[in-house]
C-alpha cells in the first residue's frame, strides 16, 4: 500500500492532544479538549487585558468512550473581551494546549465596529500516496495568517472536516486498509458494531487532524462546525441502500464520533445524542443558523434532505430575529448550484464518487428546495430591511451569487467556499464552475420566479477554482442595518492571496 520507502503520513502521524474554542456568547465560552489517555483536565481562562481579576477555572471529564475528548462551558465572562486559555491534564498538570478568543457583544446594537468571520469546508490533507500534501500544509498556514490579518471573530467549518472515504487506498471502505492497517477484524465496516465503528472514526479524526496549522486555527478563535457526507461516506443519504442495517451501523458510529470531535464544540452531551445537529446562535446584531443536511437525509418513496422539525426550527428562529440586521443560513450543500441537466451529465461523465446526484436540484430533493425557497421568500417579504445570506461549501469551487425574486421581494445572497485543502480532479471542478456560472430561473411553487446570477467583482475571479477560504465582512450603514462583502482567499506558498472580492452589498 502506498509508494516509496517512507511509511505514509496517514499511518505514521496521529493527533495526541488538542484544544479548541467552541461556541461563544457575550458571557461564556465552550472549550473542547482531547488527550491521549488522560481522563481529567483543568481549564484556566484569563482576560488578556490584565484586569487583575482571578482566572475562571473549570474541571472536565475526558471520557474514554468519547476517545478522551470532551467540552465544558465556562460562564461569568465579560462581553467584547479578549481571553487566553490553557488546558492541563492529569495529576501532573501536563498542558494539552492553549489558545485565545474574544467574547461576543452583549446586545444586538452594542457592536458598532465592523465584524468579519470565516467560512471553510472540505479538509483532505493527504495526497493519493498517503502523505500530507504540500499544498494542504501551505493553504492551512495561509488560512491562519489570513484570519490574523482580517481580525476574524469566529469561523464556521461547513462540512467535510474529515474524509472517511478518501484518499483511495487509504479509505475506511478499502478492504486491505481496513483489515491490514487498522486491524478492524473485518474488511467491511458494515460487518462491525456501531461501537467498533465509532472507535475507527475516532481514530480517523486523530489521523486527519494531526497537522499543526489545523490545530492552531481551531485554538485561535471560536469555531462552529456542521457535518456533511464525507464524515460518513460520499453522497450519504442519496442512495436507497443507506437504509440497510449495516449502513445504519456505520451511520450511528460516524455520528457518535462526529459529536465527540465536532458537535461537542457547541452542543451539550445528551444520551442519546440529538437526532439533528442543527443550531442557531447570535453575535451582536448578526444571527446564524446551521442546518444539518445529513442526519435524516433519504431518497426513495419518502425523500427528504432534512427533517420537517428542522424546517420548523429554522422558521421559528428567523421569525424571532426580525430585528437583526443580517441573518446567515449555513447549508453544507448550496441551495442553488446545479441545473438538473448538468447534474445528470456530470453524474454520467465523472468518476465514481461524483457529487452531482447529491444536489437540491435532483429528483427526490426538489420538493425540499421548493419548501426552502418559499420559506426564504416569505422571510424576505416579512423583514425587507434584514440582509439574508446563504453560506455553503461542498462543490470544490468558491462563488458568490445574488438571488432575485420577481416583484417586490428583496434579494438574498449565496456565498460558497470550497475546498480548503482538498484539490479535487480538474473535470469535477470545471463542471462545478460551469454549473454555478449558468444563470438559473426557478419557479417557486408555481408562483413568482427566483433568478440566480453571479455577483460582479471588485477584484479576482467568480467562480474561483483553486483552494480557498471565505471571509465575510460586515459593516454598519449610516442609515442603519449592515452591508456585507465576500472575499475568497487562495494561497501562494504560505501567504494568503486574494482570489475574489465582491462589492459591498
Summarize the structure.
This protein is of the alpha+beta class.
Core attributes:
single chain, 505 residues, alpha+beta, eight-stranded mixed β-sheet, seven-stranded mixed β-sheet, 22 strands, globular
Task: Figure out the total of helices.
Answer: 10
Distance between the ends: 51 Å
Q: Which class best fits the helix and strand makeup?
A: alpha+beta
DSSP strand count: 22
List low-confidence stretches.
349-354
- Principal-axes geometry comes out as globular
How much is the radius of gyration in Å? 22 Å
Topology diagram in text:
Elements: H1 9-12, E1 18-24, E2 28-34, E3 40-47, E4 56-61, E5 69-75, E6 82-89, E7 94-102, E8 115-120, H2 134-149, E9 155-158, H3 175-181, H4 194-208, H5 212-219, E10 223-226, H6 245-261, E11 279-283, E12 286-290, H7 308-320, E13 326-331, H8 340-349, H9 366-382, E14 387-392, E15 399-405, E16 412-416, H10 426-437, E17 440-443, E18 449-454, E19 459-460, E20 469-476, E21 482-492, E22 495-501
Parallel strand pairs: 8-9, 9-10, 12-13, 13-14, 14-16
Antiparallel strand pairs: 1-2, 2-5, 3-4, 3-6, 6-7, 8-20, 11-12, 15-16, 15-18, 17-18, 19-22, 20-21, 21-22
Helix pairs in contact: 2-5, 4-6
